[in-house]
Amino acid sequence: MKNLAQHRSGGLYRHRIVVRKRIYLLLSVVLISTITALLLLLEESHSSGLMLWLIDLVVESIAFGGYLAITLLMILDGACIPIPSEIILAFSGFLIWSGRLDVWTTVLSGSLGSLLGSLIAYVIGLKFGREFIERYGCYLMLSRKTLDTIENWFKRYGKVIILVSRFIPGLRTAVSIPAGIGRMPIYSFVIFTVLGSTLWNCLLIYLGVKLRENWIVIGALIGKLEIPIVLTLLLALGYVLLFHKES
User: Fold this and answer.
1) pTM, to two decimals
2) How many CB atoms are closer than 10 A to CB 106?
């Protein structure tokens, strides 16, 4: 009876620890989501000057450098540097409509830049992401098991994750880093990055052609989707941490 009571007491204690961890994780996700939403809203309300500067940078760069500028700008975008592809390719579509650029050369230039930039982010995740989590992950409630989980995800679903994420604002470029952390096979990463990025690039170029002088609205429309998408992804991550971490 004494052993049974001790066993029940130990089980109850472990259950309380698990519940406490999940409460902490839930509060962390809610706090991070709230802070992220506030920062995104603040950025949106004060970003008109920055956006105008980015538009001027893109317009002047492509007007001067043509296809090479498109490739270089898309490399920056793919490497998670905030030069929105919506601006780059929508303006390129406008230039195609005006007869200053060729459509297929533009698609090739944009897709090449997307691939090279994504490879840079992939290598960063591969070389430094795992070490960062192993060294500092304990402060973020991440562990070696987290690395194993990410690696298993990309082994099982990596192709779908990479392909689908290329169409999601806020995730389109960032996904390359966890792909590197998860050690996704490089050939699969390249194939599905090229496929997804090319389809996305063609869509933006097509919209730029159709909108003509109004190409600039594309960036504003897609930018408004970032807040709900980022919050949804954070809540989805919180769900995974809460209900699958212990399994």
Assistant:
1) 0.69
2) 23
